[in-house]
Amino acid sequence: MKFSTKAIHAGQEPDPTTGAIIPPVYQTSTYVQEGLNQHKGFEYARTQNPTRFALEECLAALEGAKYGLCFGSGLAAEGNIMNLLSSGDHVICGDDVYGGTYRLFEKVWKRYGITFTYVDASDASKVKAAIQPNTKMIWIETPTNPLLRLCDIKAIAEVAKAGKQITVVDNTFASPYLQNPIALGADIVVHSVTKYIGGHSDVIGGAVLTSRDDLYETLKFHQNAVGAVPGPWDCWLVLRGVKTLAVRMEAHQKNAMTIAQYLEKHPAVEKVMYPGLPSHPQHALAKAQMNGFGGMVSFVLKGGEESARQFLGSTKLFSLAESLGGVESLVCHPVSMTHGSIPKAERDARGVVDALVRLSVGIEDIDDLVKDLEAGLAKVTVMAGSAK
Ligand code: P1T
Fold this sequence. Notes:
- The structure is a single chain.
- The N and C termini lie far apart (56 Å).
- The chain has two domains: 3-242, 3-Layer(aba) Sandwich (Aspartate Aminotransferase, domain 2), CATH 3.40.640; 246-386, Aspartate Aminotransferase, domain 1 (Alpha-Beta Complex), CATH 3.90.1150.
- The mean pLDDT is 96.
- The chain is an alpha/beta fold.
- Strand 5, helix 7 and strand 6 form a beta-alpha-beta unit.
- Helices cover 36% and strands 15% of the residues.
- The site of ligand P1T has 20 residues, from helix 3 and helix 4.
């Protein structure tokens, strides 16, 4: 089956009791057992829920993975992966990741004796150079949040295989429609399902996908033992959203490309980051590793923080909000919003500067979106030469 067919049908056989074409929301906490040790494979809903199982199967199919596990948020999914590690283990992490991922590592897992080294993972040789005898995991995002840098998944997975590290790829920005890290050698894929997979800004969720039996066993154990599972209603919403992932991603990236090209020519804009632009330093890798360039566009305004302040909040269709991947366009100021938990010195060193703006380009009409940006950018006075 091809992608769009899987998105609509995988894990979603008609309900065996009624023939309902849509998996029911099994809103139950427990299941009645016929007798001691006699049941239908369902005992307690933290452990087993048919609506969640349908979503897990569907997402595994979309990532080309053998197994899928769903969680109450993307960060809960990340925590589940970290449960694979023990005190004394070391993790190499890309230096441009979602601020909440950095916070989870630095403020939570560090306290349990796990150490982290952050490297520019867009250069696989830097990842290799950071390996220590106790390195157990290599964690990357690609494209990265918010700078839209790319990491060469195949090259990093090879580095990891040689050193026996587990490669984890946060595939949230690309979505399974545009990139399948397991096929490129990664061991685990993690998603914030909240974003493109859900697609409608109405649910928080996460997923972990793997084809490795050994890892799955431990991940599955911790899904139940730690218990950060999503409710069936949320799973149902994601199942509904994911059916249109292919058509939405096509629309997102068509709009994003037009906007990236528009911004690149705008006099108020210093720099545009979008993997689909030939000016992107890893445009060739994007073409090789992805099936498209996605719906996220970041750019740096001329004139520093003041310009960002003038621009942000002045658009009407691009709503000022955290998150991404919904059908509606959003604009975000990473420094004060999504990446505020990273200390300023670290942010500056990584290029997450005060004048950086991140767009989640929605699927509204492109003419309206460009007009909206035009109006917002007209507020940036540096363009008229009246600001520094
Ligand atoms: O919000 P949650 O579902 O817990 O997902 C966390 C997460 C994980 N990975 C990536 C790449 C993410 O972007 C996120 C969440 N990001 C935002 C809320 C944001 O606006 O960037």
